[in-house]
Amino acid sequence: MTDPLRLGIAGLGTVGTGVVRIVRQKANLLAARAGRPVQIVAVSARSRDKDRGVSLSDYAWEDDPVALARRDDVDVFVELMGGHEGAAKDATEAAIAAGKDVVTANKALLAHHGHALALAAEDAGRVIRFEAAVAGGIPVVKALTEGLAGNDVTRVMGVMNGTCNYILTRMQSAGLPYAEVFEEANQLGFLEADPTLDVGGIDAGHKLALLAAIAFGVQVDFDAVELEGIEKVTIDDIRQAADMGFRIKLLGVSQMTGRGLEQRMSPCLVPADSPLGQLEGGTNMCVLEGDQVEQIVLRGPGAGMGPTASAVMGDVMDIARGVRIPVFGQPAAGLERATPARAVTPAPYYLRLGLEDKPGALAKVAAVLGEAGVSIDRMRQYGHEDISAPVLIVTHKVTRSALDAALKAMASLDVMAAEPVALRIERV
Amino acid sequence: MTDPLRLGIAGLGTVGTGVVRIVRQKANLLAARAGRPVQIVAVSARSRDKDRGVSLSDYAWEDDPVALARRDDVDVFVELMGGHEGAAKDATEAAIAAGKDVVTANKALLAHHGHALALAAEDAGRVIRFEAAVAGGIPVVKALTEGLAGNDVTRVMGVMNGTCNYILTRMQSAGLPYAEVFEEANQLGFLEADPTLDVGGIDAGHKLALLAAIAFGVQVDFDAVELEGIEKVTIDDIRQAADMGFRIKLLGVSQMTGRGLEQRMSPCLVPADSPLGQLEGGTNMCVLEGDQVEQIVLRGPGAGMGPTASAVMGDVMDIARGVRIPVFGQPAAGLERATPARAVTPAPYYLRLGLEDKPGALAKVAAVLGEAGVSIDRMRQYGHEDISAPVLIVTHKVTRSALDAALKAMASLDVMAAEPVALRIERV
């Protein structure tokens, strides 16, 4: 196996350019590690003329990524275009049909079509690898699929959207409201063109769905991820949480329960002194728990040219070295679809309730909670002179369904001034 | 590749028993993930009759691990005996000579003989895998060798001896002196039969040498690791460090410099709010830095039945899946021996100096430091009435050789009441 491994790269944005740089600058190192040369033979991108600070003249150019994917001289199709429909999907399907292996950073594509693509790839004897799709430079897909292959995985968790973590930690450190920090992040270019992908938890949800499929040996099912964004988190929530020794993180949690597979991406409270609680700024963190390994925590940059290109190259090097593992760790043909389960594991919750300044308002709310079986651990109300001051409650452990019943009953009370906010306090 | 992968396990202590349990209890899961059954065919240990809580009756028994290693029906020799000479070495060599792949948890064996064993294995077309030898359940060998294969690694660091980290954090939290916590750890069974392996930094040094070989593409060279144990760290050092915002950790650091390869395992000061500084108790942490990936931090249990067996099984599963990567990430035949370099990267140091209660003592010490080019950032002396109270100094950045010159000159002063202690303040 000393023939060169020949790459066709579709997409020459930040990540694609980073990959080209590594292949050009580290030819000897890569060849020594892979036991064979790693070469780029062809590239494709929207604009041929854009100056990317790297020479492309050694490579064939294809305007059409599908044509790139089908080239006879390409062994591995490296898909760095993004988007879960259109060109990225067409080209990936074409690559598989043409007998190419695929390396992709496209979380959306795999979250939506990963199972079908894996079936097609494995039918054709090909692999799809996607380390760069989850948590940037952190080799978490590898750790989970390979390193923990001797475990029954019990839970995976992750803070996997750097923009959201930046917003939440910046709100806390600067004492600024959400809208202001959101605008700041926008100015800094941290947000996707459609910011809902970030702050709505969609991007992080894609990543969670991929990890859950590997962890629990099921078909990837993004539609079953319970999504809740960070838009409703206020500076007061962050301050109150901090007062009680917590931090608020957009946290993904997946675990298999007796009732089915939980996949949740939502703002949660975690202990301030835990590795997750201590995570600041744009850094990502994944927590993998298994019956044997107990708990592994992985921390690193979730985005950026170098880190994401590093993850892409890890996959390329594995293919160069002859590593061939099923896309989701087990043959896709044998993966079943999990029954989705809402959060069934009981947990304490943090509640923020905006009440009208009416006599007995609190008593009515307390009665509703009690009837639903939600017992109160701690309760606070600041600034009684301010009628808009919310009541803050930490519940004892409760199931999400009991809590939802309470929230539903509350909605029909005549004392609610605002929609209640409920954030789970996750055991980490 | 649907033939079963057949294991011969030598050593049935905690880890070996853990591996037997996993293979027995997870046969279906392992087969689904590997695409083939994983079976144990034969075992070997010192005592055949000991009750290990797991049935061995399905497996052939060999009194001699060398005979086990040579069995025709063994594909992978799993070496869990320990010790860098004698039976473990003989059996590993025999396994390679007989054409077996090897999975081992034996850091001492590989730190001392890893290069020769890798040469022999690769000559025979075999692999040796050793995830369990470094940082227990943390898949750090995999992350470094495979996940970061597209990087020029710039530095690796690690807190990789749980016993030392337990002792240091317990000293701090309970305010107890070293000797007392050492005895406590001994009572709890945390220490090796020869405790120098732990507290002298040898065990952690073995692990660092293995990571350095992979990271920098050189022959593993344990003899070149600068070793300094934790025996001289006092409760006062820990308190003073804490006062200044630091924690003391037995930290391994390796980096390639213009003058050669640095490999140091020594008590260092790290910022209290860094991931390394926040690491408490027996947990391990590895920090991997590359020119592309920036910094990856991996945290997890460094020992114990489940975590270590998890690492062994990760390697077994890789072999079952057909993963074949050179022992140290590049063919051993091409690895050169690095020139060892003492810490050449300048850093600030923490100094504890015991001075006689003589007029001008401090002035003499300060003069010596100044002559050697060591400038003082901060200095403290507590309890001037107590003549034994040490002088505590934090230097500006200085090379180790300049510092050593100063310490040497100090030794010939007539004002030193105790041997000076110098701890590096590592940038993390």
From TrEMBL, chains A, B:
It is an enzyme of class 1 (oxidoreductase). NADP(+) binds at A10, G11, L12, G13, T14, V15, G16, T17. Pfam families: ACT, Homoserine_dh, NAD_binding_3. CDD domains: ACT_HSDH-Hom. One of its GO terms (biological process) is methionine biosynthetic process. It comes from the Bacteria. L-homoserine binds at E192. Residues 350-428 form the ACT domain. The active site is at K207. Pathway: Amino-acid biosynthesis; L-methionine biosynthesis via de novo pathway; L-homoserine from L-aspartate: step 3/3; Amino-acid biosynthesis; L-threonine biosynthesis; L-threonine from L-aspartate: step 3/5. NADPH binds at K107. Keywords: Amino-acid biosynthesis, Methionine biosynthesis, NADP, Oxidoreductase, Threonine biosynthesis. GO terms for molecular function: homoserine dehydrogenase activity; NADP binding. Its EC number is 1.1.1.3. Belongs to the homoserine dehydrogenase family. This is Homoserine dehydrogenase. It comes from Roseovarius spongiae. The lineage of its organism: Bacteria, Pseudomonadati, Pseudomonadota, Alphaproteobacteria, Rhodobacterales.
